[in-house]
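Supplementary Note 3. Input sequence used for the single-chain structure prediction.
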Amino acid sequence: MNECLFHMVAGAPNPVAPFSHAAEVDGWVFLTGQMPTDPDDKDAPLPEGIEAQTRRVMDNLVLVLEGVGLGLEHVVSVRAFLTHFDRDYAAMNAAYKAYFEEGRLPARTCVGVTGLAVGALVEIDLIARRP
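The predicted structure, written as discrete structure tokens, is reproduced below.
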């Protein structure tokens, strides 16, 4: 096993806790869950509603992926966390699915939680694999 690399990506959102944007070992890249925060203004209000928050989270994940030389086509597994599961599940799915090529959806788990950092409605993390 190779040494683990810890990545902090310039231009990605400021961490809301003590973590690296991604950790990598043996070609596997584990992205920390992203919040719907503005990467250019950590004090900006969160987007309104689950669709807008999901898009911001996915855009933030793309920033981190690009920062380590990868894209969504390299994602193999995703975990999504929702604070209002019954209310937001369908709308989150619609916004999320638009980011992936038809027929190339990663494995995924989605769970309801009682709360997320910064009062977010959604948080998503993922695992990617280098080709």
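Strands lie at 5-7, 22-25, 28-34, 75-82, 107-112, 122-129. DSSP finds two helices and six strands in the chain.
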